[in-house]
Amino acid sequence: MKATIDIPDELSRRVKAKTALRGRAVRDATIELFQKWVDEPWAEPPKAPKSWLDELLKHALPAVSDLREILVLRLLEIDNAVLHAALERGTRLSLC
Questions:
Q1: Which of 68, 78, 86, 85 is nearest to 95 (CA)?
Q2: How many domains does the chain have?
Q3: Is the same domain home to 84 and 57?
Q4: Which pLDDT tens digit goes with each residue over 28-46?
């Protein structure tokens, strides 16, 4: 098969010079490069990197869930009477 392709002038000059220095024809070098390209293993396209928000949420959600559980357990430990008295006085409660 014969094919015509457009190659940038600078690249064409470099290919001709290199093949001439090696005593090869441009055609042979082209066939060799095409063959290597076709024979190389098919690589999966790289996956798009996750956004910074996806990464943050991946790590933050379990931490928030753990914190919520700790707070709920701590609130359950506070005696109702202490809670009511503190609320009546307008006192802030420390959960830690």
A1: 78
A2: 2
A3: yes
A4: 999 999 999 899 888 777 7
DSSP letters for 9-65 = HHHHHHHHHHHHHTT--HHHHHHHHHHHHHHSPPPPPPPPPPPHHHHHHHHHHHHHH
What pTM, to 2 d.p., does this model score? 0.43
Of the candidates 15, 43, 48, the residue with the CA atom closest to the CA atom of residue 29: 15
58 Cβ partners below 8 Å, 6+ apart?
50
pLDDT value of residue 33? 93
Domain that holds residue 83: 52-89
Q: Is residue 1 part of a domain?
A: no
